[in-house]
Amino acid sequence: MCGIIGYTGTNDGAFDVLMTGLAGLEYRGYDSAGIAIADPTLSVHKREGEVAALESAVPADGLGGQTGIGHTRWSTHGPPSDANAHPHTDCSGSIAVVHNGIIENYQSLRERLEADGHTFESDTDTEVIPHLIEAAIDTGATREEAFRQAISQLEGSYAVATVFEDDETIYAARNESPLVLGIGDEGHYLASDVPAFIEYTDRVVYLEDEQFARINPSGIVVTDATGAVVDTAVETIDWDPEDAGKSGYDHYMFKEINEQPAAIRKCLRERVVELDQRISIEELADLECQGPVQFVACGTSYHAALYGARLFQEAGIQAQCFLASEYDVETIPVTGETLVVAVTQSGETADTMSALRSANRIGANTLAVTNVVGSSAARESDHVLYIRAGPEIGVAATKTFASQQVALAMFACTLSGDASAEFIRQLRALPDQLQQVLDESNARAVADAYVDAEAYFFIGRGYNHPVALEGALKLKEISYKHAEGFAAGELKHGPLALVSEKTPVFALVTGSDISKTLGNIKEVEARNAPVVAITDAPSQVEQYVDHVLEVPSAGPQLTPILANVQLQLVSYWIANRLGRSIDKPRNLAKSVTVE
Ligand code: M6R
Fold this sequence. Notes:
The protein is α/β, with parallel strands linked by helices.
């Protein structure tokens, strides 16, 4: 996964647009970055490190030029270095290419090109592309023909953008990696994701797999694999640049944690109709589901899917949940009756896409639960349920987890046809209760008390089990500390051996029957572990624990959503105290587009 930006316009502003775009794409990868300006001569500048490091690789007063491409990288082939940073060029240095994805047959292409006399300067799979274009031009092909010929030889996933020396045209192509075009008044854009150019235009065209684009200041032409011009739909993005900025917060993650009440309001809007006690999701009106439901997802989205599957089971719908990377239609029974639900914030996660595609191939009914309009998951599923969380830039998923949970809760109700008046009231009250948690949380003090711990454990049962897993994932992602989540009852079957006075235990104690979890708390206390309870029943719990993080009661299904916010805050403040790179944790990226 990586981020791509391209711009071609009518003034000398390419450099500024590219740098702004790269800053907006850094969540996709941030181990090296580079740009190429095409006019009047091709100049390439790249550096290992974050986008800020790239500033030092260019003249202090920037660069002129009306056309250029940029890239921020998350390494797959070859370690982060100046040489492996994109753009990559051909032997003559007159063709520059940026790429997101993986070229699976690059080794054989490279061997052939090297045998023909091409010289390579990096370890990347990407570098074969400029050399393939160069080789085609040497045989007399035009620039566009050469680009198409090069792309036709690639196997794997790619979003590619290419510029040529002294040429105002950008040539682009996509297959299984996202690419969106922006239509502006003073130029045109392309990027892996809309935040890269939302400051300049909100009119976009999503490129489909196996499509090509030719972009210059006077227009955009999209063609299919045969070269035929494709009619494209121009869509308007409904969020503004401020939504994608930090709005005064120190970190995107903290901003996004605080945006949860608004995100949930958006998710519920016009879907929960209190007047006639109904939940109605317009985009799922034609969804029929007779058979079992199978959820596929990764990471935080998997935890949301676990939560969703439990809701479905409780509503009497047969439901299972799979890690997308373990979903294998050869061994798991999937038929045309099965509804396969891909839960994915980005809609681009390679493992989830692979599971979704295999379900599609078998003829299952498919649904994407995603945040990103026009994402691969949205386009390749039979149905889409948008979670409407707004852009999430911090690598650690926060508001999208809450929105996924709420969207799945509504979905379970529509599918089972059973939404009680009480549940509807609880759903509608949730945003205000979330705000209350944010306003009154003492998570920062708890974080201060345990910042030096050796390891952290999270326990919960029922709907709180996925929240315990998510609490641990969040903490390890951004603090780099060892953290594990367990079903509360499982602790005594092994993990208890790790529990000591150096390992705080965060216990989720909500719902109607808390007695068993209280029993588990006593087990860890007997091993001298400090216990922090996240609970809506403080009076029943506080005598057994060291700290309480209180949440309002939102009923057994929804209170865990509130409890999770307390855990997000604990993780945030521990990572903050440790001075970690909260929005861009080491080794991680927002959108994982490799399997
Ligand atoms: O975009 P997706 O929801 O498909 O992403 C899945 C995971 O990669 C993602 O949730 C990851 O675990 C996050 N970094 C968690 O904070």
